[in-house]
Amino acid sequence: MFVLHEPQKLQILYESLEKNIPESLKVYGVIFNIKNKNPFNMEVLVDAWPDYQIVITRPQKQEMKDDLDHYTNTYHIFTKAPDKIEEALACPQVINWEQVFQIQGFQESLDEAIKKVAASKSVQVDYTRTKLFMMEIPVKRNTSSNGKMDMMELVNMPTDNKNQNKGDFLSIKLDPSHAKLVNEQWDFGKNERSLKYIERCLQSFPGFGILGLQGLPISWVVMEQSCELRMAYTVPKYRGQGNMQQICYYYVEYLTQRKIPFYLHVAESKEKNQKLLRMFGFNISLCGWHQWQCTPKKYC
Protein backbone atom coordinates (compact mmCIF):
# COMPACT_ATOMS: atom_id res chain seq x y z
CA MET A 1 0.00 0.00 0.00
CA PHE A 2 1.11 3.59 -0.56
CA VAL A 3 0.22 7.08 0.63
CA LEU A 4 -2.06 9.11 -1.62
CA HIS A 5 -0.83 12.71 -1.44
CA GLU A 6 -2.23 14.63 -4.40
CA PRO A 7 -5.25 16.84 -3.57
CA GLN A 8 -6.92 16.00 -6.88
CA LYS A 9 -6.66 12.26 -6.24
CA LEU A 10 -7.92 12.70 -2.68
CA GLN A 11 -10.96 14.53 -4.06
CA ILE A 12 -11.63 11.73 -6.54
CA LEU A 13 -11.31 9.17 -3.72
CA TYR A 14 -13.61 11.20 -1.49
CA GLU A 15 -16.32 11.32 -4.14
CA SER A 16 -15.89 7.62 -4.84
CA LEU A 17 -16.23 6.69 -1.14
CA GLU A 18 -19.52 8.56 -0.99
CA LYS A 19 -21.02 5.77 -3.10
CA ASN A 20 -20.13 3.25 -0.38
CA ILE A 21 -21.63 5.05 2.61
CA PRO A 22 -22.30 3.94 5.35
CA GLU A 23 -19.51 1.31 5.25
CA SER A 24 -16.98 3.92 4.11
CA LEU A 25 -18.06 6.68 6.53
CA LYS A 26 -15.01 6.50 8.80
CA VAL A 27 -12.44 7.03 6.05
CA TYR A 28 -14.80 9.42 4.28
CA GLY A 29 -14.95 11.64 7.38
CA VAL A 30 -11.17 11.58 7.85
CA ILE A 31 -10.58 12.57 4.23
CA PHE A 32 -13.05 15.44 4.63
CA ASN A 33 -10.84 16.80 7.42
CA ILE A 34 -7.63 16.12 5.48
CA LYS A 35 -9.05 18.28 2.69
CA ASN A 36 -9.88 20.98 5.26
CA LYS A 37 -6.57 21.89 6.93
CA ASN A 38 -5.89 18.36 8.23
CA PRO A 39 -5.63 19.39 11.91
CA PHE A 40 -4.80 15.85 13.11
CA ASN A 41 -2.10 15.33 10.45
CA MET A 42 -3.74 12.24 8.97
CA GLU A 43 -2.74 10.45 5.77
CA VAL A 44 -4.49 8.08 3.35
CA LEU A 45 -3.17 4.75 2.10
CA VAL A 46 -4.59 2.79 -0.86
CA ASP A 47 -3.61 -0.56 -2.31
CA ALA A 48 -3.91 0.65 -5.91
CA TRP A 49 -4.93 3.69 -7.95
CA PRO A 50 -7.39 4.46 -9.38
CA ASP A 51 -8.88 0.96 -9.00
CA TYR A 52 -8.42 0.75 -5.24
CA GLN A 53 -9.83 -2.06 -3.11
CA ILE A 54 -8.56 -0.99 0.32
CA VAL A 55 -8.40 2.45 1.98
CA ILE A 56 -6.72 3.01 5.34
CA THR A 57 -6.35 6.34 7.10
CA ARG A 58 -3.86 6.83 9.92
CA PRO A 59 -1.86 9.60 11.63
CA GLN A 60 1.41 10.58 10.01
CA LYS A 61 4.42 8.89 11.60
CA GLN A 62 5.48 11.89 13.69
CA GLU A 63 2.08 11.87 15.39
CA MET A 64 2.35 8.28 16.66
CA LYS A 65 5.26 8.89 19.02
CA ASP A 66 3.54 7.59 22.17
CA ASP A 67 3.36 3.79 21.98
CA LEU A 68 0.59 3.69 24.60
CA ASP A 69 -1.71 6.36 23.12
CA HIS A 70 -4.45 4.44 21.30
CA TYR A 71 -6.51 7.65 20.97
CA THR A 72 -3.94 9.14 18.61
CA ASN A 73 -2.78 5.81 17.20
CA THR A 74 -6.04 5.16 15.37
CA TYR A 75 -6.53 3.53 11.98
CA HIS A 76 -9.76 3.72 9.98
CA ILE A 77 -10.41 1.06 7.34
CA PHE A 78 -12.71 0.50 4.39
CA THR A 79 -12.35 -2.35 1.92
CA LYS A 80 -14.15 -3.61 -1.16
CA ALA A 81 -12.21 -6.87 -0.91
CA PRO A 82 -12.38 -8.41 2.60
CA ASP A 83 -10.34 -11.40 1.38
CA LYS A 84 -7.36 -9.10 0.74
CA ILE A 85 -7.39 -7.12 3.99
CA GLU A 86 -5.40 -9.69 6.01
CA GLU A 87 -2.31 -9.25 3.83
CA ALA A 88 -2.51 -5.46 4.13
CA LEU A 89 -2.93 -5.57 7.92
CA ALA A 90 0.06 -7.86 8.37
CA CYS A 91 2.40 -5.43 6.63
CA PRO A 92 4.48 -3.50 9.24
CA GLN A 93 4.66 -0.53 6.86
CA VAL A 94 0.87 -0.25 7.10
CA ILE A 95 0.15 -1.04 10.77
CA ASN A 96 2.62 -0.63 13.64
CA TRP A 97 1.83 -3.74 15.71
CA GLU A 98 4.48 -2.79 18.27
CA GLN A 99 2.24 -0.02 19.63
CA VAL A 100 -1.05 0.12 21.44
CA PHE A 101 -3.57 1.27 18.82
CA GLN A 102 -7.14 0.97 17.69
CA ILE A 103 -8.86 0.24 14.41
CA GLN A 104 -12.28 1.64 13.62
CA GLY A 105 -14.52 0.71 10.73
CA PHE A 106 -18.07 -0.07 9.73
CA GLN A 107 -17.53 -3.53 8.27
CA GLU A 108 -17.90 -6.59 10.50
CA SER A 109 -16.00 -8.57 7.87
CA LEU A 110 -12.79 -6.93 9.16
CA ASP A 111 -13.07 -8.79 12.46
CA GLU A 112 -11.70 -12.18 11.47
CA ALA A 113 -8.68 -10.72 9.63
CA ILE A 114 -7.78 -8.31 12.44
CA LYS A 115 -7.94 -11.02 15.11
CA LYS A 116 -5.99 -13.50 12.98
CA VAL A 117 -3.15 -11.06 12.28
CA ALA A 118 -3.15 -9.88 15.91
CA ALA A 119 -2.78 -13.44 17.18
CA SER A 120 0.18 -14.02 14.87
CA LYS A 121 1.86 -10.93 16.33
CA SER A 122 1.05 -11.66 20.02
CA VAL A 123 -1.35 -8.74 20.26
CA GLN A 124 -4.47 -8.76 22.43
CA VAL A 125 -7.66 -7.46 20.80
CA ASP A 126 -10.62 -5.93 22.66
CA TYR A 127 -13.57 -5.69 20.30
CA THR A 128 -16.52 -3.30 20.69
CA ARG A 129 -19.65 -3.24 18.54
CA THR A 130 -22.37 -0.62 18.87
CA LYS A 131 -25.19 0.75 16.73
CA LEU A 132 -24.27 3.27 14.02
CA PHE A 133 -26.68 6.17 13.47
CA MET A 134 -26.60 8.49 10.49
CA MET A 135 -28.95 10.94 8.86
CA GLU A 136 -29.93 11.74 5.32
CA ILE A 137 -30.86 15.41 5.39
CA PRO A 138 -34.11 15.82 3.39
CA VAL A 139 -34.51 18.64 0.90
CA LYS A 140 -38.09 19.41 1.90
CA ARG A 141 -39.74 19.85 5.25
CA ASN A 142 -42.02 16.89 5.83
CA THR A 143 -44.02 15.19 8.52
CA SER A 144 -43.98 11.42 8.38
CA SER A 145 -47.04 9.21 8.58
CA ASN A 146 -46.41 8.57 12.27
CA GLY A 147 -46.42 12.28 13.06
CA LYS A 148 -42.65 12.72 13.55
CA MET A 149 -41.13 15.84 12.03
CA ASP A 150 -37.95 15.45 10.04
CA MET A 151 -34.72 17.16 11.11
CA MET A 152 -34.97 20.08 8.71
CA GLU A 153 -38.37 20.90 10.18
CA LEU A 154 -36.86 20.73 13.65
CA VAL A 155 -33.81 22.89 12.98
CA ASN A 156 -35.96 25.49 11.20
CA MET A 157 -38.38 25.85 14.08
CA PRO A 158 -38.76 29.36 15.54
CA THR A 159 -36.25 30.12 18.27
CA ASP A 160 -38.93 30.03 21.00
CA ASN A 161 -39.70 26.41 20.19
CA LYS A 162 -36.03 25.44 20.31
CA ASN A 163 -35.57 27.02 23.75
CA GLN A 164 -32.41 28.83 22.73
CA ASN A 165 -32.28 30.43 26.15
CA LYS A 166 -34.13 27.95 28.33
CA GLY A 167 -34.46 29.82 31.59
CA ASP A 168 -30.90 30.63 32.58
CA PHE A 169 -29.43 27.91 30.35
CA LEU A 170 -27.52 28.96 27.24
CA SER A 171 -26.25 27.10 24.20
CA ILE A 172 -22.48 27.49 23.86
CA LYS A 173 -19.68 26.33 21.59
CA LEU A 174 -17.17 24.32 23.60
CA ASP A 175 -13.45 25.09 23.74
CA PRO A 176 -10.37 23.27 25.18
CA SER A 177 -11.08 24.66 28.66
CA HIS A 178 -14.02 22.23 28.82
CA ALA A 179 -11.87 19.17 28.05
CA LYS A 180 -11.40 18.08 31.67
CA LEU A 181 -15.14 18.01 32.32
CA VAL A 182 -15.81 16.07 29.10
CA ASN A 183 -13.01 13.60 29.89
CA GLU A 184 -14.35 12.87 33.38
CA GLN A 185 -17.65 11.62 31.91
CA TRP A 186 -16.46 9.84 28.76
CA ASP A 187 -16.74 6.06 29.06
CA PHE A 188 -13.77 5.59 26.69
CA GLY A 189 -11.69 8.21 28.53
CA LYS A 190 -11.02 9.24 32.14
CA ASN A 191 -7.21 9.30 31.77
CA GLU A 192 -4.42 11.73 30.85
CA ARG A 193 -4.08 10.56 27.25
CA SER A 194 -7.81 10.87 26.61
CA LEU A 195 -7.72 14.36 28.15
CA LYS A 196 -5.06 15.47 25.67
CA TYR A 197 -7.05 13.88 22.85
CA ILE A 198 -10.25 15.72 23.84
CA GLU A 199 -8.36 19.02 24.15
CA ARG A 200 -7.11 18.54 20.62
CA CYS A 201 -10.58 17.68 19.33
CA LEU A 202 -11.99 20.85 20.90
CA GLN A 203 -9.18 22.90 19.35
CA SER A 204 -9.84 21.48 15.90
CA PHE A 205 -13.51 20.53 15.55
CA PRO A 206 -16.89 21.92 16.63
CA GLY A 207 -18.33 20.91 19.99
CA PHE A 208 -21.57 22.21 21.47
CA GLY A 209 -23.00 22.30 24.97
CA ILE A 210 -25.58 23.79 27.30
CA LEU A 211 -24.31 26.07 30.05
CA GLY A 212 -25.84 25.60 33.50
CA LEU A 213 -26.48 27.98 36.35
CA GLN A 214 -22.97 27.60 37.79
CA GLY A 215 -21.30 28.55 34.51
CA LEU A 216 -20.33 24.98 33.60
CA PRO A 217 -21.69 22.82 30.75
CA ILE A 218 -24.42 20.44 31.87
CA SER A 219 -24.82 18.70 28.50
CA TRP A 220 -22.48 18.39 25.50
CA VAL A 221 -21.41 16.65 22.29
CA VAL A 222 -17.94 16.75 20.68
CA MET A 223 -16.76 15.94 17.14
CA GLU A 224 -13.55 13.99 16.47
CA GLN A 225 -11.13 13.48 13.57
CA SER A 226 -13.39 11.22 11.49
CA CYS A 227 -16.38 13.61 11.73
CA GLU A 228 -18.07 11.36 14.30
CA LEU A 229 -20.09 13.01 17.07
CA ARG A 230 -18.86 11.49 20.32
CA MET A 231 -18.57 12.00 24.09
CA ALA A 232 -22.24 12.99 24.39
CA TYR A 233 -23.30 13.40 28.03
CA THR A 234 -25.86 15.13 30.22
CA VAL A 235 -25.39 15.62 33.98
CA PRO A 236 -27.94 13.25 35.63
CA LYS A 237 -30.05 15.86 37.43
CA TYR A 238 -30.57 17.75 34.15
CA ARG A 239 -31.69 14.75 32.11
CA GLY A 240 -35.18 14.60 30.65
CA GLN A 241 -35.29 18.41 30.22
CA GLY A 242 -34.59 18.59 26.48
CA ASN A 243 -30.97 19.78 26.79
CA MET A 244 -29.56 17.19 24.39
CA GLN A 245 -32.37 17.98 21.96
CA GLN A 246 -31.37 21.64 22.11
CA ILE A 247 -27.77 20.74 21.29
CA CYS A 248 -28.92 18.57 18.38
CA TYR A 249 -30.89 21.45 16.87
CA TYR A 250 -27.86 23.71 16.73
CA TYR A 251 -25.29 21.05 15.96
CA VAL A 252 -27.15 19.62 12.97
CA GLU A 253 -27.93 23.10 11.67
CA TYR A 254 -24.27 24.13 12.05
CA LEU A 255 -22.95 21.01 10.31
CA THR A 256 -25.46 20.91 7.47
CA GLN A 257 -24.92 24.58 6.65
CA ARG A 258 -21.19 23.87 6.30
CA LYS A 259 -21.71 20.54 4.51
CA ILE A 260 -19.75 18.68 7.19
CA PRO A 261 -20.53 14.94 7.29
CA PHE A 262 -21.62 13.60 10.68
CA TYR A 263 -22.80 10.41 12.35
CA LEU A 264 -22.60 8.78 15.78
CA HIS A 265 -22.82 5.51 17.64
CA VAL A 266 -24.87 4.35 20.62
CA ALA A 267 -24.40 1.29 22.81
CA GLU A 268 -26.89 -1.54 22.30
CA SER A 269 -28.14 -1.11 25.88
CA LYS A 270 -28.96 2.62 25.63
CA GLU A 271 -32.47 2.28 24.23
CA LYS A 272 -33.63 5.74 25.37
CA ASN A 273 -30.82 7.40 23.42
CA GLN A 274 -31.65 5.34 20.37
CA LYS A 275 -35.30 6.35 20.60
CA LEU A 276 -34.34 10.04 20.83
CA LEU A 277 -32.14 9.78 17.74
CA ARG A 278 -34.90 8.10 15.75
CA MET A 279 -37.24 10.92 16.73
CA PHE A 280 -34.75 13.39 15.27
CA GLY A 281 -34.59 11.53 11.98
CA PHE A 282 -31.44 9.48 12.50
CA ASN A 283 -31.50 5.96 11.09
CA ILE A 284 -29.71 2.84 12.30
CA SER A 285 -27.21 1.51 9.76
CA LEU A 286 -27.21 -2.27 9.60
CA CYS A 287 -23.43 -2.41 9.16
CA GLY A 288 -22.87 -1.32 12.78
CA TRP A 289 -20.02 0.58 14.46
CA HIS A 290 -16.90 -1.50 15.16
CA GLN A 291 -13.72 -0.83 17.13
CA TRP A 292 -10.74 -3.10 17.78
CA GLN A 293 -8.35 -1.95 20.51
CA CYS A 294 -5.03 -3.73 20.03
CA THR A 295 -2.46 -4.13 22.80
CA PRO A 296 0.85 -5.96 22.36
CA LYS A 297 1.33 -8.60 25.07
CA LYS A 298 4.36 -6.69 26.40
CA TYR A 299 1.97 -3.89 27.47
CA CYS A 300 -0.76 -6.13 28.92
From TrEMBL:
Family: Belongs to the glycine N-acyltransferase family.
Protein name: Glycine N-acyltransferase-like protein
Gene name of this polypeptide: GLYATL2
GO CC annotations on file: mitochondrion
The enzyme's E.C. designation: 2.3.1.-
UniProt KW keywords: Acyltransferase, Transferase
Pfam families noted in UniProt: Gly_acyl_tr_C, Gly_acyl_tr_N
Source organism phylogeny: Eukaryota, Metazoa, Chordata, Craniata, Vertebrata
Species annotation: Hipposideros armiger (Great Himalayan leaf-nosed bat)
Domain Glycine N-acyltransferase C-terminal: 208-296
Boundaries of every Glycine N-acyltransferase N-terminal domain copy: 1-206
